[in-house]
């Protein structure tokens, strides 16, 4: 009789255990099938440094997860030391609790992008970043004047951000974004500095970058850039002033579309009609083609150029020919 009772107890124990396991599996299986797509919350953010519990509670509050307990059980069955990757996430129309959980663990964040265009100033770049609402920044911080570490010895932040399309997860800190830009510019400038024509009158990679920024502003035509570079290099070699209008414009406080004779007489660190050599800093962020042109200008005897009526430039070797070109196309 005692043996029969023991056998029955064992049977009951295993039966109850099986029922509990089946109920648990059924409970967990709910997460595998429950669709969580919601048009109002298809995008959401995981903040850096937030704990698993805090994140799950926040997602539960917007109805992305039904139960923090059930989600945690699945989570710890999947990984003994789970970590969510911070960033911006998207819920697809077929998304389930389980598929979203795996997405958070794998860090399948949404990639946003911002384009930094050739020829933009640091002020314009910072303005674009802030208006995008994709980066985090401090209102009291002056990012326009902030200089980030680089092998290029910058005197200001101007010209330090390489023009490119940058992909990242929304919510990135603006400092991290800009440091990435600076590293890209450093890599490109040093690449062309190391392969430059060593007869060029540059004392440092920074001076070559300054020249590239002027070339960038003078023309958007790729084939003209090495020629314009040669004009400025020829003038430097002959101790002639650059007389580059874009540098004058950069130094003006209130440029309204025209440069007057008074503007050309203004003495400042960017008026290359009045100063010898290069301006103090770059005047914009030049693209790779302009940097390449600065490092390897065309071999020419040109000393002047003027824009024609077709958006191109007429190049001259002497002042008389230049005056004739100016009279033809500018008057």
Overall number of strands: 8
Strand order of the largest sheet: 1-2
Shape: elongated
Average pLDDT, to the nearest integer?
87
Low-confidence segments: none
* Whole-number tally of structural domains: 3
Order of helices and strands: HEHHEHEHEEEHHHHHHEEH
Ends: how far apart?
121 Å
Please tell me about this protein's structure:
The protein has 331 residues and is mainly α. It has three domains: 2-106, no CATH class; 112-188, no CATH class; 195-329, no CATH class. 46% of the residues lie in helices and 9% in strands. It contains twelve helices and eight strands. It has helices at residues 2-33, 52-61, 68-78, 97-106, 122-132, 174-194, 205-218, 225-237, 245-251, 261-265, 288-295, 319-329; strands at residues 43-46, 87-90, 111-115, 135-136, 165-169, 172-173, 304-307, 313-316. The strands form four sheets. The chain has a two-stranded antiparallel sheet. A hairpin with a 5-residue loop joins strand 7 and strand 8 (313-316). The longest helix is centred in the N-terminal third of the chain and has 32 residues, at 2-33. It is elongated, with a radius of gyration of 32 Å. 30% of the residues are buried.
Describe the secondary structure blueprint for this structure.
Blueprint: H1 2-33, E1 43-46, H2 52-61, H3 68-78, E2 87-90, H4 97-106, E3 111-115, H5 122-132, E4 135-136, E5 165-169, E6 172-173, H6 174-194, H7 205-218, H8 225-237, H9 245-251, H10 261-265, H11 288-295, E7 304-307, E8 313-316, H12 319-329
Parallel strand pairs: 4-6
Antiparallel strand pairs: 1-2, 3-5, 7-8
Helix pairs in contact: 6-11, 7-8, 7-11, 8-11
């Amino acid at each position: 009789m005692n043996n029969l009772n023991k056998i029955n107890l064992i049977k009951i124990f295993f039966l109850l255990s099986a029922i509990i396991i089946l109920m648990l599996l059924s409970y967990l299986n709910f997460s595998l099938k429950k669709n969580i797509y919601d048009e109002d919350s298809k995008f959401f953010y995981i903040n850096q440094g937030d704990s698993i519990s805090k994140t799950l509670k926040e997602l539960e509050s917007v109805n992305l997860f039904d139960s923090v307990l059930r989600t945690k059980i699945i989570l710890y069955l999947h990984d003994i030391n789970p970590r969510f990757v911070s960033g911006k996430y998207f819920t697809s129309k077929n998304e389930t609790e389980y598929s979203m959980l795996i997405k958070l663990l794998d860090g399948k964040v949404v990639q946003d992008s911002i384009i930094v265009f050739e020829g933009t100033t640091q002020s314009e770049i910072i303005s674009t970043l802030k208006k995008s609402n994709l980066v985090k920044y401090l209102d009291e911080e002056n990012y326009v004047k902030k200089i980030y570490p680089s092998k290029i010895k910058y005197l200001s932040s101007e010209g330090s951000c390489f023009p490119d399309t940058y992909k990242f997860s929304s919510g990135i800190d603006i400092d991290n974004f800009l440091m990435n830009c600076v590293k890209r510019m450093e890599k490109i400038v040093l690449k062309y500095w190391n392969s430059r024509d060593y007869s060029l009158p540059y004392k440092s990679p920074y001076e070559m970058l300054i020249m590239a920024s002027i070339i960038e502003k003078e023309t958007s035509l790729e084939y003209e850039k090495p020629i314009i570079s040669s004009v400025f290099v020829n003038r430097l070699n002959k101790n002639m002033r650059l007389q580059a209008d874009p540098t004058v414009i950069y130094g003006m406080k209130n440029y309204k579309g025209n440069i007057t004779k008074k503007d050309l007489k203004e003495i400042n660190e960017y008026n290359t009609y009045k100063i010898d050599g290069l301006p103090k800093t770059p005047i914009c962020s030049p693209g790779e083609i302009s940097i390449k042109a600065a490092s390897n200008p065309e071999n020419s005897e040109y000393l002047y150029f003027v824009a024609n009526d077709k958006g191109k430039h007429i190049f001259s070797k002497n002042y008389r020919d230049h005056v004739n070109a100016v009279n033809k196309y500018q008057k």
